[in-house]
Amino acid sequence: MQERVKGPQFDIVGTRPVRPDGADKVTGRAKYGADHRVAGQLVGKVLRSPYAHARIRSIDVSAAAKLPGVKAIITSADFQEQPSEFVPAGEMLVNYRDVLRNVMAREKVLFEGHPVAAVAATSESIARAALKLIKVDYEVLPHVIDVVEAMKPDAPVVDETIITAGVTPPPTKPSNVAKRVEFVLGDIEKGFKEADLVIEREFNTQPVHQGYIEPHACIATVSEDGTAELWTTTQGHWVARAHCARLLGWDITKLRVTSSEIGGGFGGKTVVYLEPVALALSAKTHRPVKMVMSREEVFKASGPTSGANVWVKMGVKKDGTITAGEAVLKYQAGCFQGSPVQPGCMCAFAPYDLANVKVVGFDVLSNRPKVAAYRAPGGPISEYAVESVVDEIAEKLGMCPIELRLKNAAKEGTKAAYGPKFGPIGMVECLEAAKSSPHWNGPLGKNQGRGIAAGFWFNIGGETTVNLQLNEDGTVTLMAGTPDIGGLRASLAMMAAEELKIPYEKVRPIIGDTATLGYNFVTGGSRSTFSSGLATVEAARSIIKQACGRAAKLWEIPEDAVTWEDGEIRPAGDNAGKFKAMKLADIAKVAGKTGGALVGVGAISAQGAAPSFGVHIADTEVDPDTGKLTVTRYTVIQDAGIAIHPSYVEGQFQGGAAQGIGWALNEEYIYDDKGRLQNAGFLDYRIPVASDLPMIETIIVEVPNPRHPYGVRGIGETAIVPPMAAVNASARRATGVRMFELPLSPPKVLKAMKGGKSA
Amino acid sequence: MRYESPDTLEAAAKMLAAESGDARVLAGGTDLLVQIRSEILSPALVVDIKKIAETRTVSEEKGGFRIGAAVAGAELKEHAKLKKAWPGLVEAANLIGSTQVQGRCSLGGNLCNGSPAADSVPALIAAGAVASIVGPNGRRELKVEDVMLAPRKLALTKGEIIASFFLPARPAHASDAYLRFIPRTEMDIAVVGCAVSLVLDASGTCTAARVGLGAVAARPLLVEDAGKALVGTKVDEAALEKAAAAARAACKPIDDKRGTIEFRTDVAGVLTKRTALIALERARKA
Ligand SMILES: Cc1cc2nc3c(=O)[nH]c(=O)nc-3n(C[C@H](O)[C@H](O)[C@H](O)COP(=O)(O)OP(=O)(O)OC[C@H]3O[C@@H](n4cnc5c(N)ncnc54)[C@H](O)[C@@H]3O)c2cc1C
Description:
The structure holds two protein chains of two kinds. Chain A has three domains: about 35-140 and about 210-300, Aldehyde oxidase/xanthine dehydrogenase, a/b hammerhead (Aldehyde Oxidoreductase, domain 3), CATH 3.90.1170; about 305-460 and about 610-755, Aldehyde Oxidoreductase, domain 4; about 465-595, Aldehyde Oxidoreductase, domain 4. Helices cover about 25% and strands about 25% of the residues of chain A. In chain A, strand 20 (about 460-470) and strand 21 (about 475-480) form a beta hairpin. The longest helix of chain A is centred in the C-terminal third of the chain and has 28 residues, at about 530-555. Chain A is globular and about 85 Å long. By secondary structure, chain B is an alpha+beta fold. Chain B folds into two domains: about 50-165, Uridine Diphospho-n-acetylenolpyruvylglucosamine Reductase, domain 3; about 175-285, Enolase-like, domain 1 (2-Layer Sandwich), CATH 3.30.390. Helix content of chain B is about 35%, strand content about 25%. In chain B, the strands form four sheets. A five-stranded antiparallel beta sheet of chain B has the order 4-5-10-6-7. In chain B, helix 5 (about 85-95) packs antiparallel against helix 8 (about 120-125) and helix 10 (about 235-250) crosses helix 11. At the A-B interface, helix 20 of A face helix 11 of B. Flavin-adenine dinucleotide binds near residues 27, 95, 104, 108 and 162 of chain B.
């Protein structure tokens, strides 16, 4: 059990009960995407492009269709064209022209692994054999993988309809630059003039995969009457439903989507890949169709987040006051527009109270899989670059990197460069907690170095529905619609129990399907404990109000003469003491006689999400002969608002740090000269294994969010933002050289150490 | 695909030789089954050799050891005498995979899979191990360093099976060691692997030395010059430096997803020194 800065002031919130989904997960009973089976199911398989970029001249499925056991084959011809327009889907903007092409290539294949056809057959081996019989005639085109290359005027154009948005006058020719965005605050020229020291650096990062252990998987079944069911592993089944219904041209109500237990998503399961294909195959056969991606397919055709080229320039006075910050971000979007460059721009300088900021971002296409959201999408990349420069400033000024950050830290009232004024935030509190932490003040061994970095993420609210039923025996069933990826059910049950003043064990939380509950946006943006928590509180308070009404009816007194105190319904005012106080369980027993079931619904669009700041401390040790870096000690300090269930908050902190350390040290996409991915598996795409990491220490800082009844901020994403810069700063001290490129893999580090390349 | 599990080497060799399509030996299956599942291989015949006694036993012979080609890594670790005589070979075999893989993976499979990065092969080479091979025309012997020719290419002819490996008797003050470089701490493939086997005399002077390198050329290498650099010395810094230089000179690596030519060559030297020092420490105590 780890450190916590403040104690909780609640009975249940802030304690550490066992998670309701725990037993089934450790015994293997829990059903993940690939665990669902339906009688008569067919196996669906996807034929994927072997080329990074090619025109599809024709597809001949006739031989495959004749193979006994093949029940259906689909290609892009089975999907209606979608107009090119950005429409809201939940909080995101989606262009269904691109979603459609991502699911099934149309005129061109745009990356190795791009789906071109799909087969449903009675067995896996028949489905595989059928794929081999499909003849695709390709005209191979020149391709481009690197983001800087893709921006050059003579680069192969991935999508001929792209004319750069956000520049005036608009270009006349298509290019791979889909968009230019700009955020400006104050006057950077003036800021740089005031500076005593100006540092300017260029950084490169690699795309990294979300690395969820569970591959994408679903089963679809379409009935003869056109109604359909879909079981899938997803971060948002309402959003999946909307995408599928749109691509298939169906009424939304025809499609019922159930989310399975989910073996990690990290943003990567907010996208549909297999689902529309499985539904289309089932619609042709009226048999259930099950589809499961292999790990190779996951790597080649899902995720990742952008790789990027980032240029940062910062000016600072001798006393450590940062006078200006400027950055240019070039983010890979993959083969369709929509990299997270905009949030990247917004996050870049967010931890600091700066007068003069300019950030320019470019959204750049290349022949890679379309990027998907990954934990704080965009933030880790720009903040790695900015925090690395902040570290260099501290070194050049001879200042403690915590003091430098404290001097410039964003606080309540700071106007962020991206627009809003911050409410109460915990950046200063995190820095203070870091400064006094055992880790920051602990010893370092030979060849070791210590680094520190800060990070920020916005967090969101959004559409959310929770349904609470008071059962006949006084227990409560809680139905939420945001898939539980990291302990959500426990946290919601705790908030419900806290409100209703009943034991935690008396609340059974489940995740409902799209036919049983009102709309829910995805589990993403660190929103679920915040938003479904708000909806839970609203639903619980509705139950209490209804229960008070029932008591008033029984006692034959006005409703406003009844109060809820200490978990009891009591007669109040003139009637105080006249009737025996009732518990919710007493009301539950007489629900039928007093008007029927008590059901509370919280159907909201959650407002008031608050950002979370974090500070990470990393120690690394270098093997001077091989360049191998080992993280020897690591601490995450982050503002949680209030930690509902501290263990799951700590788990999120540790998980974010572990992913960030992988990003910093070894994870990268390696392509050959034909644009084919060389490391599509966990053997050579090196996420950290357990023995690579020290026990990650955590300190929960609690600066409550005033706009949530339990002070929740959202904590899932911030933890992946600081690790790359923290590890980079510690590596600089361990190795004696400063590096500007990720990952810090041994060959690169050894080369840099030998070159003595240092800033 | 046909599956057979004969109980003699002769029967196994006959079946393999008679199959006109692709025929494969199955030991632990930790390479073969993965390759079949991912459709890299689709053999017509798979002959499981685990029912054959010689492939599954470790026995003492002429003061040395005979190790069955299909004995699992975990079984080698549990053999106290073998571990004492050849700690480096046993630690190399035990770097293969995870606990689960350890229960199945074999020395024969590691060698015959034909990967230049196989962990136990440099250790077998440094140990001077000799493979005993049974084929349709009888039995023959081949030094381990001569078994692999190139990636996925072996000096075995159709129907030939490695039955066992013979490790010679150990004099006093002899030991071995294996180190590999991987970017992580486990579940990774060697970027460079290095095994050193040393014999010292009573005064601590090295009288025999063999150095095996993995993942730095198209096949695992015996680096004779590196061994020679150590013989006649006290394995001091100068000798180690010479051995490292010889190891680097022997490298003919490729640039790939696991490392660059420059890095592999460099680290081969680093590991040669480090491995020799471990072997030296052990030999002094042996
Ligand atoms: C998760 C995982 C991790 C791994 N990690 C490592 C690692 O760290 N280091 C490493 O070196 N390897 C590693 N491997 C590869 C593999 O485990 C080893 O190469 C292992 O030693 C193979 O032995 P096996 O008995 O399983 O061989 P099998 O799969 O049974 O056989 C491998 C090949 O050799 C042939 N063969 C087997 N025995 C004989 C014989 N006696 N005569 C002739 N031909 C034969 C087979 O036909 C086949 O082509 C890993 C594999 C997995 C799945």
